[in-house]
Amino acid sequence: MRASGAIGLWASLPRELAIRFKPRVDPLARAILQEVQRAVPEYRQPLEGAFGHIITQGVRQAIIQCLDSVGTPGAVPLETWTTVFRNLGKIEFNEGRSLDCLQTAYRVGGRVAWRHISEFGQASGVGADTLCTSAEAIFAYVDEISALSIEGYTAAQTRAAGTRARRRRRLLELLLADPPSAPQTISAQAATAQWPLPAEVTVVALEPRADQHSLAAPDLHSDVLVDLEGGEPCLVTGDPEKHLKNLTERLGGWRAVVGPTVRLTEAPRSLLWARRTLKLVQRGVLPDAPVTRCTDHLSTLWLLADEFLVRELCSRSLEPFNDLTPKQRARLGETLLIWLQSRGSAPEIAKKLKVHPQTVRYRMHQLIDLFGDRLNNADDRLDMEIALRAEALLGS
Fold it and tell me: What is the pLDDT of residues 94-122, one digit of tens each?
């Protein structure tokens, strides 16, 4: 149990030493405070108010605890030691300082205490063995109270991180809510979650990759809002250029689909398109990649936004293909699509299809027989091209 080493060393010293040193407590406390303020700039403010009370009482109580333990095992309950210095660690975190300040203060205090005890011992004829034990006790005490403060600091840090994580999770829910949350509600939650509201956001849909047996959390910037626990994991960022850089290497086994960047109030729309794109990846319509960006597939997303209408268009525009065999339909459909795209000559189309020009001429005659004047109508040609592209995407 912590602090027992220092307590044992203090208890091994003669009680008379503490009684004789007691009048020096206040001068020692003042000397420690002066040296700490000189060595630690963050503690140079006037010793008044809550800060002054905490640091003054902390120093004085540390000295008295040590003296009360001299020659009297168990005189100071272990909980008294641990509570005081854990609380100091918590206070440091809540004040927004790093542990470096407190750790430096402890080391400085230990050196000042040893200097005073050494001078007292030499002036009072204290034996060398007793002085050595006193030095060992002082620096063991410094090590142990440092460890206790680290525990307190870490506990406060963990608690604060948990609170902030919950608040940011709630903020993410508000940003993606449908119907939309009130702007003032979002602003208030963002302030509570310590998340500066951006003008625009990007939403990323996530799912575990099928080839992953163990899944780690993505290695993301702390300002990214993340939900990995819901049924449809996602994240929100206000700075995609910074936060999504090298995303593939940082996913930790997740597949990501990056939605379009939108105004803050349209975050649900970014998520909608990210999830639609993810479904197309799952179906094999889009390539299976660690990261897919909606903006790289806008025409496909538009084309397949309403598959019922697309299939109706395919059925109407490509009706002349209905009586063909699947192989005939595939060959003529491929030829028709290239002709619609390029309006090229037979040799040009043949080069793209890697067939003989005469084969293309034969197929074009078949297409003219099937579609007739519709091949000369711009609206019909557009419908055919859309239908053929859609069929290629849907695998129909």
Answer: 888 888 988 999 999 999 999 999 999 88
Angle value at C-alpha 359, between 353 and 364, nearest 5 degrees: 90
Query: pLDDT at residue 80 above 70?
Result: no
In this structure, the strands spanning 200-208 and 234-237 are: antiparallel
Confidence of residue 3 (pLDDT cuts 50, 70, 90): very low
Contact 226, 220 (CB under 8 A): yes
Q: Which two tokens stand for residue 140?
A: 């063991």
* Measured CA distances, 237 to 173, 191, 230, 241, 265 (Å): 13, 16, 18, 10, 13
List CB contacts of 130: < 8 A, sequence separation 6 or more.
Answer: 13, 14, 17, 121
Question: Nearest Cα to 251, choosing from 193, 209, 309?
Answer: 209
Complete domains list, the chain, with CATH: 4-161 (1.10.490), 198-303 (no CATH), 307-394 (1.10.10)
Q: What is the DSSP letter of 251?
A: S
Residue 257 bridge partners (DSSP): 205, 292
CA distance 171 to 176: 9
**What are residue 236's phi and psi, to 5 degrees?**
-130, 135
Look up residue 190 and give its two tokens: 């963002």
d(CA 98, CA 129): 37
Residue 252 has pLDDT above 70, yes or no: yes
Query: How far is the C-alpha of 283 from the C-alpha of 292, rounded, in Å?
Result: 14
What letter does residue 324 receive in the DSSP assignment?
S
CA 349 to each of CA 193, 252, 262, 328, 330: distance values in angstroms, whole numbers, following the listed order: 60, 45, 41, 17, 15
pLDDT, tens digit (0-9, with 9 covering 90-100), for 147-195: 999 999 998 888 877 888 899 999 999 999 988 899 999 999 999 999 9
> And the tokens for 180?
């939309």
Rg of the chain (C-alpha set)? 37
Q: Are strands 291-293 and 254-263 parallel, antiparallel or unpaired?
A: parallel
